[in-house]
Design a protein that fits this description.
Blueprint: H1 2-17, E1 37-39, E2 45-47, H2 48-51
Antiparallel strand pairs: 1-2
Length: 76
């Protein structure tokens, strides 16, 4: 009985999730993100531009070429 309820809820949620309106201001794949600063888990500020700077301790280190940003959209 519980499994039938869970399957029914999964179908209900997946059906209604398609009814979400599209976002006109959503970023597109490959679009450059503006620079921003957020705090990490230890409370230190980290900016997007800082992620692309070479490490000052290691002169042979190659900075990353890209960063993956994940945006979660929903109704809170």
């Amino acid at each position: 009985m519980v499994s039938l309820f869970l399957v029914g809820m999964a179908f209900f949620i997946s059906f209604h999730a398609r009814a979400m309106p599209t976002s006109a201001g959503a970023p597109t794949v490959g679009q450059l993100a503006p620079d921003f600063t957020l705090f990490d888990t230890s409370g230190q500020p980290v900016s997007l531009a800082r992620l692309f700077e070479p490490d000052t301790d290691d002169s042979k280190a190659v900075p990353p070429k890209a960063a993956l940003l994940i945006f979660y959209r929903g109704y809170w």
